[in-house]
Amino acid sequence: MSRANDRRRWQAAGASVRGAAHERSGMPNQDAIQWTGNGSSLVLAVADGHGSARYPRSHIGATIAVKTATQLVHEFVLGQTDVENLSLIKRAAEEWLPHAIVRAWREGVEEHLNANPLSEVELDALRNDTLSQAYGATILTVAVSERFILYLQLGDGEILTVTDQGTVSKPLIKDERLFANETTSLCTAEAWSDFRISFQAITNEHPALILLATDGYPNSFRDQAGFLKVGSDILEMIRTAGLGHVQDSLEGWLLDSTRAGSGDDVTVGILCYPQITQIK
Amino acid sequence: MRPGGELATRPLHFIWIADCSGSMAIDGKIQSLNTAIKEAIPHMQDVADENPNAQVLVRAVRFSDGAQWHVSQPTDIADFKWDDLDAGGVTAMGKALSIVADQLRIPPMDERALPPVLVLISDGQPTDDFSGGLQLLMNEPWGRKAVRIAIAIGEDADQEVLKKFIANPELRPLQANNPESLIKYIRWVSTAVLKSASSPASQSVAASATGLNVPIPALPDATGPSADDVW
After folding, report:
1. Which residues of B touch A258 (CB under 8 A)?
2. pLDDT for residue B212 is more than 80
3. Which of A21, A230, A233 sits opposite B53 (nearest CB)?
4. Which value does ipTM take for this structure?
5. Nearest to B4 among A48, A179, A221 (CB)
6. Distance between CA atoms of A69 and A198, rounded to whole angstroms?
7. Phi first, then psi: what are they for B141, rounded to 5°?
8. A222: which chain B residues are within 8 Å (Cβ-Cβ)?
9. pLDDT tens track for B131-163
């Protein structure tokens, strides 16, 4: 890891593990993670397929979700030529991206369906719902650039930001409907309206670290404070041992958390800013 | 060193809500209920062992002239023991639901819990403000999202009241007219329902608005009136 090369460049890390409960039942990992970009602009997404019988292809839906969201949001960020007009970018993000992400996801689902028609068993599981429900998934996406940060979330899971001083907070307002095992989803009729979005202009300060997690991770901690502590702990670990150490260790940590915690699939994505990646 | 605080499995609260009115003393109903629950305990322990990511915690409420916690502390199923209930008095079902509602508040309940399972067992009609008690229960988020199962013991049980408790047209009260059917239904809720509730997959808010938020397994065979019916 080179200091010079890292300066003013965001970096990403992440991992996804199959849940302990899914290991026992033989189900595949329903989560997905992907990131794209070059450092000056980076987009990371995680998704969680719903996993029950009514969503028999949700693991594929999650993969389509992270692929389409990272590609679309990255194109959006790169397409902003008037970077001085942040209010215009904010408005465009809020008004256009939810529709565009849902539309792109549905097109991806349609393409997969055309190549792989649903079986009789899958059709029965859907009851009278639309075919795209078979692919139901959440999507959490964060885009970082030199001038702004964009947070988008549809469904459960958590996004945390950590300041340079280690203060952890949540950039998005709570959606009270995300309770028990219920979530908003890409597969519902007006999914675009369920997005939560936050736009942060980068002035003097910005998060040192941003963490995205599917709900299997926060549900693995005894309390909310224990989950929030992940943010400040990882920041400290990156400072002392480097992002490479965190990346190498992440899968093991996530496996521990699903086994001793929720049993659900667990996915974590990390975006960190260069100044903290320099190993002390 | 792993980041974050203490890891923990998710609690699954399972609550028996048992009618102990005087009529439960007739024809051995209360003894049959005690036997059925005792026999179910090892099967619940087996289900809990199969899913170590859910911590099954059991409690019980009894109602007659009033309602009290029969087992007040959420008890790990591995340590759960059943002390026999006895019968006598009227049917304060509304009060029973209200004290359950108190315990389903957040806190003491945790948002990260699994949906609780509430099993209401009754052989008669409420003699107090059932609607008020049910309203208190349904005012709580975990009351609305609980898996609510009702078992009617005998022909005098108020099916309409039990349907209101279930509050879902996809699920009907289970009708137990003899000790064998009561054992069968108690076993079903203790095993199949518990297993389903202990590892529920996510579903969209829109889907749960029209159905059950935890898939309910196939009901045990429904038997019509038989010569064995004693209740």
Report:
1. 53
2. no
3. A21
4. 0.93
5. A221
6. 16
7. -55, -40
8. 5-8
9. 999 999 999 999 999 999 999 999 999 999 999
